[in-house]
Design brief:
The structure holds two protein chains of two kinds.
Chain A: E1 3-4, H1 13-36, H2 39-49, H3 51-56, H4 61-87, E2 89-90, H5 97-110, H6 115-131, H7 140-155, H8 159-168
Antiparallel strand pairs in A: 1-2
Chain B: E1 2-13, E2 16-27, E3 31-35, H1 42-50, E4 57-62, E5 65-66, H2 72-78, E6 80-82, H3 95-101, H4 104-109, H5 113-116, H6 124-136, H7 152-164, E7 170-174, H8 182-197, E8 201-205, H9 209-215, E9 218-223, E10 226-231, H10 233-236, H11 240-245
Parallel strand pairs in B: 3-8, 3-9, 6-7, 7-8
Antiparallel strand pairs in B: 1-2, 1-4, 4-5, 9-10
Classes of the chains: A mainly alpha, B alpha/beta.
Amino acid sequence: MGLIGIPTGGVDKQTWYLIMLSVCLAMLAALAYIDRYSALGVILKMVRHDEIAAQASGINIFAVKLIAFTVSAGIAGLSGALFAAYVRFLTPDLFNEQESFRYMMMAVVGGIGSPLGGIIASLMLTMIPEGLRVLGEDNYRLLVYGTMVLFVLWFLPSGIGGLIERLRK
Amino acid sequence: MSVLELSGVSKRFGGLQALSEVSLSVSAGEVLGLIGPNGAGKSTLVSCITGVLRIDGGTIRFQDCDIQRLLPHRRARRGIARTFQKVRLADQLTVYENVAVGLASHWFARASGWSSVFRPLSAASVAQAVNRTLERVGLGDVSGAIVKSLPFGQRHFVEIACAIVSEPNLLLLDEPATGLTERERERLATLVKDIAAQGCAQMLIEHDLELVGRLCNRVTVINQGHHIFTGTPAAAQREPEVVRAYLGMNQLISGGGDDARG
């Protein structure tokens, strides 16, 4: 089961990869700007922190949450479209539990609200399992990988982003 | 003309009648004291005025408009600001960022609201308003500090700065003197007078009755959700029902009276 023949506009796979990377980095930069420097960034943080206080400041929390949800869904949709054009074949197996869990872990290990932490976690959680292939293809590899993720969650509950913040201070 | 006018406001939580036909009014530049024993319904009344709680009966008029159907954020955009009994600030953000959020009612009140929220927090229009307000409340030197790192008393002033940065027409202060040092209480008194002098109507809920006596021309007393008195602070301490509500503390409010300042 799957979707084949996804149009790529005649662009080769390598170029698609670069386009995908550029779009992702641009989105990340835009979100980091909003988060760190714009008024919207502090509005979002205030809504997350205390809805009643946010309302008292004149913020329509329903609208803010709706927009945040819609924009994040839009980003996920755009990412999916780029990914589909890159792999050229879509099947539900590409997003099985293990893969979905890995993407979620990238956000959790990276630390909520930390773009840099997210990048580092994504690199780590992609490279480490590959590097651990030297241990062989059996389950020991996954055991070591899982232990490392648990270690980060246990000792760094705010993720790599939280560690970066602490080191900065 | 009254900025705020409450008429017969009632609120019930299940079997508890928290407010029972409470009426009061506050005029521009006036500081109305709202006092009463613990559990009298003072904070409930503030939550009803700001729209956090829906009233079961009566009317709330703000600047001659019925605001009962307005959601809390719409009331804030019309110019109703408040502070909280338990300070509610984003602890992880800086003082500057917290106060900048207070400008949200300004931003969204305009048709171009959504475009203005994308501008940088350091933009001149934001920085000017925030820094001016921080200077006004005496926090100019801690603008970049994380709120969590500030002493408790200072946080009260940050909250007041958040409330006044958008230049509201009505400010509801819910026990702002709690936990303040003597010096900070003096700063608060000066600030409340300064805000009143700018024409902002204020409602001061406070257990520090000496402070209420100094700052308010009139006080409204509620007990167990019932309005029992409105008049000068001096008259309040002669009112038997008020004295009874405070369990016989017959020297409730010092100062105040005819020479009370607003």
